[in-house]
Write a structure and sequence with these properties.
Elements lengths: L3 E6 L4 H17 L2 E6 L4 H7 L5 E4 L2 E5 L4 H9 L1
Parallel strand pairs: 1-2
Antiparallel strand pairs: 1-3, 3-4
């Protein structure tokens, strides 16, 4: 089953912009689908993740937050 990465972000977030660039590059190289979602557009997401954005989910499971750990993300997507 192919993996999917979701990046939880918010507007005006420098760390989110950097994480998106990293996710776009890594997923592009690996051919992995990804999407982003604004936590402020969903009350449940904002309550759960709002103080930790950006948050990286792999297959809807929290993988990390605040920054992309490239080697760890690549390892998770290689499974």
């Amino acid at each position: 089953m192919p993996h999917h990465v979701t990046l939880l972000t918010r507007a005006e977030c420098h760390a989110c912009a950097q994480a998106e660039a990293d996710i776009r590059r890594i997923c592009g190289e690996l051919g992995v689908a990804w999407s982003s979602q604004d936590v402020d557009a969903d009350a449940e997401l904002r309550a759960e993740y709002g103080d930790r954005v950006p948050v990286i989910l792999v297959d809807d499971v929290e993988h990390g937050y605040w920054s992309v750990e490239e080697s760890r993300l690549r390892a998770a997507l290689a499974d």
